[in-house]
Specification:
about 525 residues, Rossmann fold, alpha/beta, 7-stranded parallel β-sheet, 15 helices
């Protein structure tokens, strides 16, 4: 699944610097952007946001209808003050989903447990197939199709585990150093043991010797990709979770699913499974996603979500690791069957053993006029050449579904960094870009949290889609997609760095529309489609 990897990339850089005993070039810190920059207008505010104020001015005097929006994600903090009143409530009792109130946890099991620490799909498939195929060749393999899949799995497994071993070797001593030196930082700042410190605090430390200077520089690099208010607890928690993920790739717990959930992930409809608990310790990501879509507007707390009349249906199907195809397919069906009109999917992986199940779920959503909005991913890779899953390149040969929007991440300013460095891209397979750098949204157990990722670009587009369906409910999913894609004016006045490189390209080389979503223009388009303003 997609998590914010920027802090870990920073720490890899730190590891390389530490190995060379060089701390000469620290990142140049940029001032924090406004926490709602993603909603701003380029001409009015100077930030390449989605022109949300202009959109709401356009909607003045119009009436809206509530729209149910599902988030297939890591769960949700259902006690978050900015979300409580906008959560969907199941109006009926389902015998297959006992205890369901606001959504469902397809990773849940008996005893209020949850399988939220999983490994990558290629790791699971490698150990499933290696005894059967490791000694065979294409000529001797009895099942040629499965053998070809095995070769794909093995190549990806080798790449994943090699990277995991390398990063564990680099990052473990760095993690240890950060833990050990956090006490020194607190001492220098005259803080108690239970108090946190921020990047801004560390910046103000005046080193009195080389040791203190190196400790300061260590923490500044650890904080380098975050806002000034990010705390040491957040930095250490993020790195700890990432190290846990790497360890689970190298030494996978392959029995967790059976032990906790108790189902067979290779049988789509074996029995009802899961539970109704949506908040576990990994629910921060899903909470942020939900907030961007529909956090309560105008309550002077947290953030204002994009849409003003939604009911968020959180569905937990995405662990720290790769989601199961079975859970994704069942989550889509659950959302559609319970009235969702839009589904946000901020996740993805490199191997899909049961793609046919997910293809069918995508088409089930299309048949019920449900729009799917998904994140492109954060590997700086060309999706045309190296697709991620799920996608709408179906096994039956059809592609580019009318009800699917794939979203890349854009930056704040119209300069060479306008396409986020981490974002996946693809002239054919990525539809549009949306703000995805330093995005502030609702946090778990805190008011707000700020992160990077296409995971947050996607719900911004989902929020715009919800606005359209609120105010123009007669429009189909296909029309909503068209209104959104047509809102992106091709960017031809500035060249941008292709993500992950310093190669200058036009934005049209990065996605179908060649531009960034705009809520105001999307609503104008929707109004025309609905027969208004002619």
């Amino acid at each position: 699944m997609f998590r914010n990897l920027k802090i870990f990339i920073s720490c890899i850089v730190l590891a390389l610097l530490a190995n060379q005993a060089v701390f000469a070039q620290l990142p140049a810190f940029q001032p924090d952007p406004p926490k709602n920059w993603f909603a701003m207008d380029l001409k009015t505010d100077g930030y390449y946001g989605i022109s949300l104020d202009q959109a709401y001015k356009f909607l003045q005097g119009k009436k809206s209808k509530p729209v149910v929006v599902a988030t297939i994600d890591s769960g949700c903090d259902t006690l978050q003050q900015d979300l409580q009143s906008v959560l969907w409530v199941n109006p009926k009792k389902d015998k297959d989903f006992p205890g369901d109130v606001h959504g469902w946890d397809f990773l849940g099991g008996p005893g209020r447990k949850c399988d939220f620490n999983e490994t990558e799909e290629e790791v699971r498939q490698y150990f499933k197939l290696k005894d059967k195929y490791s000694g065979l060749t294409e000529a001797t393999a009895p099942n040629k199709k499965e053998y070809a899949f095995w070769l794909q799995v093995k190549a990806q497994y080798d790449s994943t585990t090699t990277k995991a071993h390398t990063e564990l070797q680099q990052l473990t001593p760095i993690m240890n150093a950060l833990v050990e030196t956090s006490g020194y930082i607190r001492h220098m700042l005259n803080l108690k043991d239970d108090q946190t410190f921020t990047r801004a605090d560390v910046e103000h430390i005046e080193p009195k010797n080389d040791t203190v200077a190196q400790i300061k520089e260590l923490w500044l690099i650890a904080f380098s990709e975050d806002v000034s208010t990010a705390t040491n607890v957040k930095a250490l928690k993020g790195m700890s979770e990432y190290l846990d993920k790497l360890n689970n790739e190298v030494n996978p717990d392959l029995d967790a699913r059976k032990r906790i959930v108790g189902d067979d992930p290779d049988i789509l409809h074996d029995k009802p499974y899961g539970n109704g608990i949506l908040k576990f310790e990994d629910a921060a990501h899903g909470t942020q996603v939900a907030g961007l879509i529909g956090a309560v507007r105008g309550n002077n707390y947290g953030i204002d979500g994009v849409a003003d009349n939604v009911r968020i249906m959180p569905i937990k199907a995405v662990p720290n690791g790769d989601e199961y195809d079975k859970d994704v397919a069942n989550a889509i069906h659950f959302a559609v069957d319970h009235g969702a009109r839009i589904i946000n999917m901020s996740f993805g992986k490199k191997i899909s053993p049961h793609k046919a199940w997910v293809d069918e779920a995508f088409k089930y959503a299309a048949a019920h006029d449900v729009l799917l909005v998904q994140a492109a991913g954060n590997e700086s890779q060309d999706m045309d050449a190296k697709p991620e899953f799920p996608n709408d390149q179906f096994l039956d040969g059809t592609k580019d579904a009318d009800n699917v929007i794939d979203v890349g991440a854009s930056g704040m300013k119209p300069d060479t960094s306008l396409a986020a460095d981490f974002s996946n891209y693809g002239k054919n397979d990525v539809d549009i870009f949306a703000p995805g750098v330093k995005i502030t949204s609702t946090g778990m157990d805190v008011e707000t949290s700020t992160d990077d990722g296409t995971s947050f670009s996607s719900p911004i587009v989902t929020g715009i889609a919800a606005l359209i369906r609120e105010y123009f409910p007669s429009l189909s999913a296909k029309q909503v997609k068209q209104a959104i894609l047509q809102s992106a004016e091709p960017i031809d006045t500035v060249k941008v760095y292709k993500p992950g490189t310093k190669e200058l390209v036009t934005f049209s080389a990065l996605c179908k529309t060649g531009g960034i979503v705009n809520a105001y223009r999307a609503l104008e388009n929707a109004a025309k489609m609905a027969g208004e303003g002619k």
